[in-house]
Amino acid sequence: MHDLRRQALESGKTVSRKAKSKNASPASSRPNSAPSSRAASRSRAVSRAGSDDEENGNLSDETSFSTNSIDELLTWEASDPITDAWRADLADRIQELIDRKRSSVQGREKCLAIYVRTLTAQYAEEDIRGKESELVTAFLKSIKAETSERETILAMKALAMTVVTSPSDLIYEAVASPLKRVISNSNSITSKAAAVHCLGTCTFFGGASDDEILDNMAYILEIVASDGGFIEAQDEPTPVVAALEEWGSLSTLIDDLAGESEEAAEYFVDQLSSSDPAVQIAAGENIALLYEKSYRPLADDDGLADLDENDIISDPDDIPGVPKLVKNYDVYRRTDILKDTLSDLATLNTRRLSKKEQKSLRTNFADILDSVEYPTHGPRYQNAIDHETGKRYGSRMTVRIHKEGVMRIDKWWKLHRLQALRRVLQSGFVTHYERNPVVFESLPIMITNDRKAARD
After folding, report:
1. Pairing between β-strand 381-385 and β-strand 295-297 as defined by DSSP bridges
2. Dist. CA 82–CA 74, nearest whole Å
């Protein structure tokens, strides 16, 4: 059994390069070459993943790396059970993918789609064990050739599903450069975005070192800073959203972002002026995560006399054993201006957006603003007092699993990892969360009874 990427999955093990040195200067401001326009801020609004499937109204697990709004993600049911016949079919498809003899584009697309669909619906680690290297080689042939957009994206989705199902410390090294070539050189905006997501997944689960994680965070931050111009996708929101999402996911692996926060926050705040709601929300969620991560537990050897009392946060309910938190660093220099911007987005009223988009913006930015003001507050935080317990309700975001099971998402880092897993696993999230130890270890939240969660 693999070590399940413990070094990456155990939050708090990695420290940014700049934070390692006390003498390191603050992160520099944006590069001089970064364009000043916002992704799609003066152009049309574009969907988060414009694949052929979506254009036809058929968003499929096989080609999608996107998620819907938070509210639409809070109730997931496991896939319908199927018989063990899938094992024999999967074995045939694996052999077909590895051989590739006399295969056509359409044949490879069909084979890849079945492979992805099977690994999504089933935990098939035993079935692909020992074949990972040959499969990755086959996927890379399709990714490098880019014979068709669909085959390319299916191959990247197959690669992501493989590394989540059976992580290997060798995968990242093999796939990083080919994926970056697609991100930089592909003529397909959809393929670029899918490659960003695939790179994020392979970095998280595929054996990337601490320095490689940080390097990729810097790489995809350039996409955000340049509004896509860094990868020849100027003002295209889809790859910018992908970069924002994957930066947030990878940042949950870093314990101390002191050296990276100021520069990253500047770019994220800039993206709040985008006309695309997906860009705005993804940037806002990263801002909330940065503020959450800027506080650390107050240590016994901290000299209270040397600390500003305004930088110390106590548990509002005085729960025994819950430590006080102290601000470790400033995320953004002009938090006052940031709060005004977030407040405007939380009360936005415009005819430019649909009612659904406006509701999503208002709900999300109300949460983000609350977390910037009170960094210990997670998503959907409520200050109202539960009369039965006498305590605040706190973060009330819960994800329903089956009919009665729920998992509580009370921290932004949990939401980022949840969304990252959902982007890859789609409808198979529940199956993998229950059976795949790699998925559970990346988001170790116990599923509780719905009635118990309501009382807590």
Report:
1. unpaired
2. 24
